[in-house]
Amino acid sequence: PQGQAPATGGKLKVTKGGGWNSPPRSLRISNRGRLPEDTASDAVGIRCARDAQAEELTVKTPAPPPATEPAPTPATAAAPTPATEAPQAPSPTSSQAQTPPPSASAPQPTPPTTTPAALQEKTLTQVPLTVVHLPGGSFERGCVKGDSWCSADEQPRRAIVLSPFWIGKTEVTVAQFRAFAEATGTAMPEQPSWSGDDYPVVNVTWDEAQAFCRWLSGRLPTEAEWEYAARGGVSGTRYPRGSEITREEANYDGLAGRDQFAKAAPVGSFPANGFGLYDMLGNVWEWCLDWYQEDYYTQSPDRDPQGPEQGQKKVVRGGSFTSDPGRLRLSYRSSLKPSERWLFTGFRCVIPQRP
Q: 0.85 exceeded by the pTM?
């Protein structure tokens, strides 16, 4: 009946209202969250409802025990382990509907036209950071037509041609950013207590991320370069291996499931994609060079696009350890103000290929 949830078929349950750890955007009355039904979290509770026509309930209060009855002995079992925080992520734009559960229709994968083998790598001398050479060429950017998960800003899907470039094999780590901070006198952004030297650096603004990359004679990746790199030579799929993604492939959903990470994970903890790049999906959102514009794909150049000339927010891509699977899709776009700092936002660098 109208107004009721689907009886079967869903893998995630709706959550509403935000939690104690939610940013203001998640407290919007219209915001919709989602979690697996077996999730236990210290930021998720319940309230009850019953049909107005239901039979009146009678609440019975148990009588107090006799005064001579001994007080109950506290249980000796260990207290339950605190659950993880409820997942949070950059909010979708106005046109971006909440992604449906994985049972929605999905496109069939198209084999890559070329999948480079044994791509060249090199380690920079300024800081021990490995970059992978991507030969460039043409790829299909955007959401596959007919996929029910598509948002308006992911369309139209079209061929984009890119020049060759080098890109970080992993997200920039805490240790790598600290080396930059010490060498340049830049303030080191505060890192969470669960982080470490081999974790992705977070709480960095767009300007700080770009400054690090420029220190290496590089820059942040354009949005097109990022999607080309993330696809790893695959075309026509939501994720590198098909229409769904598992916790063996990426760190997401804010749950310490089989991946063992309820927060960010050390870089390189999950399998690399077809280009030998790690954590392109999940772990932390990654800053891109471009300003965000919802209809940019309708007017973007076909060769080496770099985004609109101005804007209010910068593109972030890839999802994070707090994200639901829909935000890890290869074509999914989100954005943040350049000055924002978040525990789930990091970056990697591109080194343009010199003539």
A: no
**Which H or E run includes 176?**
helix 174-184
pLDDT tens digits along 151-183:
999 999 999 999 999 999 999 999 999 999 999
* Helix (H/G/I), strand (E/B), else coil: 314: strand
Sign of CA dihedral 172, 175, 178, 183: negative
Helix (H) / strand (E) element for 162: namely: strand 158-162
Distance separating alpha carbons of residues 198 and 178, to the nearest angstrom: 11
* 227 SS3 class: helix
- What are the extents of the domains in the chain? 91-355
> Would you state the structure tokens that stand for residue 145, as one six-digit string?
């037509």
* Burial class for 54, CB neighbours closer than 10 Å (0-12, 13-18, 19+): exposed
Which residues contact residue 352 at a Cβ distance below 8 angstroms, ignoring those fewer than 6 apart?
163, 165, 166, 218, 219
H or E stretch covering 215: helix 206-215
For residue 179, the number of C-alpha atoms closer than 13 Å in the C-beta half-sphere is: 14
Tell me the C-alpha distance between 196 and 201, whole Å.
Answer: 9
Q: How confident is the prediction for the chain on average, in pLDDT?
A: 81
Nearest to 333 by CA among 283, 280, 292: 292
Rounded mean pLDDT, 105-120: 51
Which residue in the block uniquely carries the two structure tokens 């939690």?
19
Residue 33's pLDDT is 75
Per-residue pLDDT, averaged over 312-326, amounts to 96
CA distances from 344 to 184, 234, 267, 321 (A): 25, 26, 13, 7
Pairwise CA distance, residues 155 & 93, whole Å: 14
Q: 6-15, 33-42, 183-192, 201-210: which has the minimum mean pLDDT?
A: 33-42
Superfamily name and number for 91-355: paralog of FGE (formylglycine-generating enzyme) (3.90.1580.10)
Give the integer Cα–Cα distance in Å for 255 and 41.
9
86, 41 Cβ separation under 8 angstroms: yes
Q: How far apart are CA 322 and CA 43, in angstroms?
A: 13
- Residue 95: CB partners within 8 Å, gap ≥ 6? 151, 152, 153, 294
For residue 333, the SS3 value is: coil
